[in-house]
Amino acid sequence: MLLLVFAFLCIPIVNNAQEEESAELSLIEYTDEFQELFFEALKQKGIENYDKAINLLLKCKQLSPDNSVVDHELAKAYGLNNELVLAEQYAITALNVEPVNLWYLYTLVEILQKQGSGLDAIRDKIPYDTVQLKENLALIYFQKKEYENALDITKQLRSSSFANELALKIRDSISLRLKQTEAKEKEVEVKEPMDPLSMYNKQIMTLIDTENFEKLFQVSEEALEMYPSQPYYYYAAGLALNKLSKPKKAVDMLQMGLDYLLDDYELSQKIYKELANGYTAMGDTTKAAMYLSKIKNGS
């Protein structure tokens, strides 16, 4: 089990997921029609033609109704197409067929987080108390650098070499992140005094880099009290609120930032992205798609 932990931590999960699915497919005999449809669906998904990919996968589903690989691919395709309710349904179906599949669980966690939710909201729909499922969940949170969540899951596991080893790694990572944050804050303090505007900009950039979103929101609010017409501070506050699973407040903050935005293309793209994330988490896929199109079109 420890070897699995180290392998997971060292290799990007997305690439592994693709290899995992390819391996599964090679072990199962499919009809020529199924194979042609399935791999064409993967091709269409790869070029971001999600509607066509979904239609092809649904045909695969008709040919092989109980195939968890197809359910998983449908979950990912619907998720990429911002149809998160359907994505969640197929992800749950896939995980129930294979509760110990790490990649199925990862996809479900990603979809839920896009909606501003978590696994607790659907615990009654999956075999949550399966030990390996919880171990996989702890690993996923660890790789996503959600260390506190990962540590909470290890506490739910019986004492084992796996749980103890992972808990140790999590605490080491938390400690390292705190040291890095403190070092950067000290570095800011010892430099020559800066004007308040530059000081806030520097502090906010550091907090974004270290993913300290609670502190980021506090500093952004403080900055807005002094500089209420600075769109960058509305963006920082909106980003923090999204990361803290408060999409409604995030959207309100980001919309205010747009009111003060002039000719800053890079900042506008960042604000549009966070607005898309916020509306996605709220389940408003129409507005989310609108802001995503602004990013793609560069407008």
Summarize the structure in words.
The chain is built from 16 helices and no strands. It has 299 residues and is an all-alpha fold. It has two domains: 2-126, Serine Threonine Protein Phosphatase 5, Tetratricopeptide repeat (Alpha Horseshoe), CATH 1.25.40.10; 192-297, Tetratricopeptide repeat domain (Serine Threonine Protein Phosphatase 5, Tetratricopeptide repeat, Alpha Horseshoe), CATH 1.25.40. Helix content is 77%, strand content 0%. The N and C termini lie far apart (49 Å). The chain is flat, with a radius of gyration of 22 Å. It has helices at 2-10, 13-26, 32-46, 50-63, 68-80, 84-97, 102-114, 131-143, 147-156, 161-190, 196-209, 213-226, 231-243, 247-260, 265-282, 285-297.
What's a concise summary of this model?
By secondary structure, the protein is an all-alpha fold. Helix content is 77%, strand content 0%.
Distance between the termini: 49 Å
SSE class:
mainly alpha
**CATH topology term of the largest domain:** Serine Threonine Protein Phosphatase 5, Tetratricopeptide repeat
Helix percent band: over 70%
- The number of helical segments is 16
User: What's the number of structural domains?
Assistant: 2
Q: What do we call the CATH homologous superfamily of the largest domain?
A: Tetratricopeptide repeat domain
User: Which ranges are low-confidence, i.e. pLDDT below 50, for 5 or more consecutive residues?
Assistant: 1-27
Write down how many β-strands occur, each being a DSSP E stretch of 2 or more residues. Answer: 0
Overall mean confidence score, pLDDT: 85
- Using the alpha-carbon principal axes, give the shape: flat
CATH architectural grouping of the largest domain: Alpha Horseshoe
N-to-C SSE series?
HHHHHHHHHHHHHHHH
CATH class term of the largest domain: Mainly Alpha
Strand content: under 5%
Radius of gyration: 22 Å
Largest sheet: none
